[in-house]
Amino acid sequence: MSTPIVKLSFAASGIAQGVISNGVSYFLLIYYSQVLGLDPGLAGLAMMISLMVDAISDPMIGVWSDRLRSRFGRRHPFLFTSILPITAAYVLLWDVPELSQWGLFAYLLLFTVLLRLSLTLHIVPFNALLPQLSSDYEVRTSLMSYSYSGAWFVGTLLAVMMYAYWLADAPGGPVGNGMQNIQGYVEAGWIAGLIAFACLLLSALGTYRSANRHHRVEVVPPVTGLGQLFVQSRETLNDRNFLAMVLSGLAGAIASGSSTALWAYMQPYFWGFNSDETGTILAAQLLSAIFAFVLIPILMKGREKRLVLICVSALSMVIGSGPALLRLLDLFPQGGTDLLFYTMVVVGVIQVMFIVITSTVTASMIADIVEARALKTGRREEGLLFAVVSFISKVASGAGIWVGGVMLVWVEFPTDVWDLSIADASVRALGWAYGLVLGVLYLLSLIALFFYRLTRSDHQANVSQLRAGQ
Fold first, then answer.
1. How many angstroms separate the CA atoms of 58 and 217, rounded?
2. Buried b (16+ CB within 10 A) or exposed e, 445-466
3. What is the 3 state secondary structure string of the chain?
4. Highest mean pLDDT: which of 57-61, 229-233, 259-263, 350-354?
5. What is the C-alpha separation between 60 and 65, in angstroms, rounded?
6. How far apart are CA 200 and CA 216, in angstroms?
7. Where residue 268 falls among pLDDT bands split at 50, 70, 90?
8. What is the pLDDT averaged over residues 139-158?
9. What is the C-alpha radius of gyration for the chain, rounded to an integer number of angstroms?
10. Residue 417: CB partners within 8 Å, gap ≥ 6?
């Protein structure tokens, strides 16, 4: 069983990732394109490039942390090193000097690259701690539940504060005028940065003793050259179960990137919600993390992770793309009505709850693959496995954000003012693209899960064999 400080550390890591991820995913594109005036296509391109550059570092950090020998252990030198760069890069990303169009593009690209690279130093080694801290089938899921529930709860709380305080509409002004408040973005960036700093420090200190003193650490032997490293990495990754998770994550991350990039646009334009209503929808989603945290142990008790993930993924597909398509087909509550608003409140809570559950179970399933590959290769390479998953997720999320930017250009979304008079045809076109593209991507993600075969009994047998061979 994990200790309270380890659980708190996983929650802290999740909170740090959540406040940063929510800010970047939900507000960065609209901040640079609508407020600072950067062309949305260029803004989306900068964010996609930064993710692709960052993704290259994931396998490097993963392999390095698998093989590192230091008095601080394999993972914690990276965790401590990441704290200051993450904080500084995130704050500066919002506190932007006056720049030209291409200057803004370069600035956005530079600091998103720095932020993503610094986050890699934390995320990959920290996630790689999971199989090391516990081999229990359900405890692993529990620890990741603390992480993802914490991420979504605090990240959503900050987003609520964005709409309710920092970006609240000024009295007497047009709907959505609060989104133009530059100072609000800057202040929120500083607050989120300080929260991230405290949580990153806590997560590193809180797991240090358990990871490096109470558990036997098997350091992977160093390689003699890049050729040997490539052969060993290919051997480790050559697994049907792992491939299934990678393909599922690829499709899911593209869908998530597109959805989050367009969320701030869909609320006022497609659904017709003002900042107060949007803030209420977000506030209700605070319940999502709580519901997920309570439901996960109930869903997982005595059940196969694969079955739980398939069921939740199928429901996610319906709740993610269904409302937009149903409204376009006039099978949803009419715009401007209380019924529409309260329906979308419920939809939002359920959608985020499914995201938390899906993310939690997915990470736990990746951890179970560690022992399976260790039996085949003789090496425990948690860092490499989690790094590849992170690599795929980042590239796919970047592609999704870029797709979101392209959609905005396609519907000729205005960039000079916050104008809610965009043509109805453009809004409907965006709605169709949003619903259909997300539906197809979610379906592909679901299909890939049927190729995952690692069961609870397989995992227990793998752990027993590894212990017997020690």
1. 21
2. bbebbeebebebeebeebbeeb
3. CCCHHHHHHHHHHHHHHHHHHHHHHHHHHHHHHHHCCCCHHHHHHHHHHHHHHHHHHHHHHHHHHHHCCCCCCCCHHHHHHHHHHHHHHHHHHHCCCCCCHHHHHHHHHHHHHHHHHHHHHHHHHHHHHHHHHCCCHHHHHHHHHHHHHHHHHHHHHHHHHHHHHHCCCCCCCCCCHHHHCHHHHHHHHHHHHHHHHHHHHHHHHHHHHHHHCCCCCCCCCCCCCHHHHHHHHHHHHCCHHHHHHHHHHHHHHHHHHHHHHHHHHHHHHHCCCCHHHHHHHHHHCHHHHHHHHHHHHHHHCCCCHHHHHHHHHHHHHHHHHHHHHHHHCCCCCCCCCHHHHHHHHHHHHHHHHHHHHHHHHHHHHHHHHHHHHHHHHCCCCHHHHHHHHHHHHHHHHHHHHHHHHHHHHHCCCCCCCCCCCCCHHHHHHHHHHHHHHHHHHHHHHHHHHCCCCCCHHHHHHHHHHHHHCC
4. 350-354
5. 9
6. 24
7. confident
8. 92
9. 22
10. none
Dihedral angle of Cα 30, 32, 33, 39, to the nearest 10 degrees:
-150
Confidence of residue 462 (pLDDT cuts 50, 70, 90): very high
Tell me the whole-structure pTM to 2 decimals.
0.83
Confidence of residue 93 (pLDDT cuts 50, 70, 90): very high
In which band, very low, low, confident or very high, does the pLDDT at 214 lie, cut at 50, 70 and 90? very low
C-alpha distances (whole Å) from 366 to each of 27, 92, 428, 444 are 30, 34, 39, 19
Between CA 51 and CA 177, with CA 437 as vertex, the angle to 5 degrees is 70
Lowest mean pLDDT among 48-57, 91-100, 282-291, 445-454: 48-57
